[in-house]
Amino acid sequence: MNIINYRPPVDISSETEKGKHKLFYNCCLITVLTILSTEINNIIFGFSQALFPTLFLGLVFLVISILFRKHKISLYKAANLYILSGSAQVVISIYLSNGFQSPVLFWSCLIPVYAFWLLNKKYAIFWLLVSISIPILFLILDIFNFKFSNNYDFYYENHKVWALLVCLFLIINIFFVVYDFEVKKKNAIDEVNVKNEELRLALIRLEAAKSELELAEKHKDLFIAQMSHEMRTPMNAIMGVGELLKTSDKKEQDELVDILNRSSKHLLYIIEDILDITKIQTGKFQFQTLGFDLKPLLKSVYESNKIQADHKNIGFRFHFENELPDKITGDPHRISQILNNLLNNSIKFTDKGEVRFIIKYDVVEKLIIFKVTDTGIGMSEQEVNKVFDIFSQANSDIHLKYGGTGMGLSITRQLVDLFKGKIIIKSKLGKGTIITVSLPVEFEVQEDSEEVIGDANQSMIKEDLAGLKILIAEDNETNKLIIRKILHSTVPSILIDFASDGDEVLAKIERSSYDIILMDIQMPKKNGLETTRLIRAHQDERINKTKIIALTAYARKAEIDKFLEAGMNDYATKPIVKDELIRKIHDSTVASHSFLA
Hints:
Strand content: 5-15%
Shape: elongated
Strand order of the largest sheet: 2-4-5-7-6
Number of helices: 19
Helix content: 55-70%
Number of strands: 12
């Protein structure tokens, strides 16, 4: 058995405690070896008086060592037994070796040293009093001349060797105790240093978090200020036009309606940007995967931005560097959003000169490369570095002169990243800017994209939907008016009925039959989802087979899945897009196409 390689109990994790256990075990072994040497000395020099007491105490120390090594007794118990046995050994040795004049008297110094090293304060004080009482006891005995009759003289002839051995035992034991105190001190210093380093790193993280919070607070204030300005501008136009429409003639009304449409779209774009930022940052943003024609999409983007360029009297060129694939797979709406953001920015910041919109197809890498160059105000290198930051513009004067929310390019970069593409900006202050976007493309067409209702289809749809009976579940009076006007503007003969909450919907479908229900999601009493589930669970097939289209501002896939699970056939987004709503009503009723997510 390897008696030297002691292992502390597995439940002790502290390195300090482990070290204390090992050193105490070493002290036990040294004590046993010292008593063994003393016993040999007693036999050699015939000092029989100390032979049996020393042998007995030696066995006691050996038993303590074995029990401690096998983890049968704790360090606390082992230490008390060790000090008790040691005290007995000291008292017997002093008595047998000339009492108060014995050099063994100095062994009593070890008793409090071990106690303070290994035990708590209460027991340490007790053993300190014991160690003090030992020399006092032998002093009293010496005064009264009470001594052992056959004293052992440590300084007689060869006994000096064993006296040296005893002194060495005392020195070694004190060394172990002092060494452990030194180790504990070093460990304590190391722990303090580690804690200080952890505290330093925590302070650095705290400072970083504070800076981030201050920046977020600054962005919030900037966001509120910019949103207030950006949303008040179209709102003022909408409210002003509303007042003017009351007193204007027919010719003026057309112009005012055009302003109203532009202002409402501007307001809608701001809201959509805010929603996009939120969805991207929360990881809830999702792409559609549709097969679509690229060239018509690019032409539509060009034509919608050309109006703004013509209004500013700047050139706007559109050019294909090589032949593009006819049809690709992706999200046409998000590609349009990326391009519109880039072109809108370039045109907005270009007061003279031109903007070029160049498209190239990289056959090898299978990338569509969009390049937008302008001769606008340009940016410094420092401004380019922060242009993608949310709610940030190149400098504070830009918002005052050109307006904008500071979200466009931030959204654009994040969309490009989600496409696994790249965006690069090169710019010189006062010279202009070049923005290059590379997007990977695929050609496996999964689904044809939706097409806007053309003029050729209008008459057919009008004929198909004539006399259709629709129940509109909507609690907002303004929305009721808008939906009714939109439907009647395309199909005047559509029959429309209204319900303001889920209970009213259920009551009306019991009394009358409807071809389709346009169901608002947020309604008092019973919401749209709850009402739809009750309709689908109805026993009457006339009622439970009624087509239902959700009217919602929640167009995320998770929300759409909820609509379909509740039993809805399709959904249309708010604000209402006329062509989309008419087509979906036509598909759900006349064409009988169920919506597929």
